[in-house]
Amino acid sequence: MSQGMDHQETMRRHFRRAREGGVGRIVGWTFVGVIVAVFFALVFGLVVKALWNWIMPTVFGMAVITYWQAFGIIILSKILFSGMHPHSGHDRHKPPFVRSQNSYDRWWREKGQAAFDSWALDQANGNSPAGDGAR
């Protein structure tokens, strides 16, 4: 019984400590995350601007763009190529061949293995598969 009491007291101390610094820590990390995201967005805009101004005027004769035009191109490409729908489900983030592989694995577990075993047994017994008209 004393071990249970020690465990309960340990849990109480743990949760008390988590409550004391929890909200401030969450707000702090959220602020840091927002700052880092803004920094990467700014840097990505500069990279797009530099690449555009280096390649597009020379190759295609297009105009040089400003930072905000580059940032707009990033947003426009996000809308055009990935849509604005909310991402629900983890499979949507995977490439199509991974999603189809998952579907194939599920099919194999549910139906494919039994069908293959039946076919292999027919072949071992010298029977041709059903439906091919060779019987």
Concise summary:
By secondary structure, the protein is mainly α. It contains 3 helices and no strands. The mean pLDDT is 79.
Keywords, please?
single chain; about 140 residues; mainly alpha; 3 helices; about 75% helix
What is the topology?
Layout: H1 2-60, H2 67-82, H3 96-124
Helix pairs in contact: 1-2
Task: Tell me the total number of β-strands.
Answer: 0
**Strand content range:** under 5%
Elements, N to C (H/E)? HHH
Principal-axes geometry comes out as: flat
**Main structural class:** mainly alpha
Rg computed from alpha carbons, rounded to a whole number of angstroms: 30 Å
The helical percent reads over 70%
**Poorly predicted runs:** none
Classify the oligomer. single chain
From the N-terminal CA to the C-terminal CA, the straight-line distance is 75 Å
Average pLDDT score: 79
Number of structurally distinct domains: 2
Number of H- or I-type helical stretches: 3
Largest sheet: none
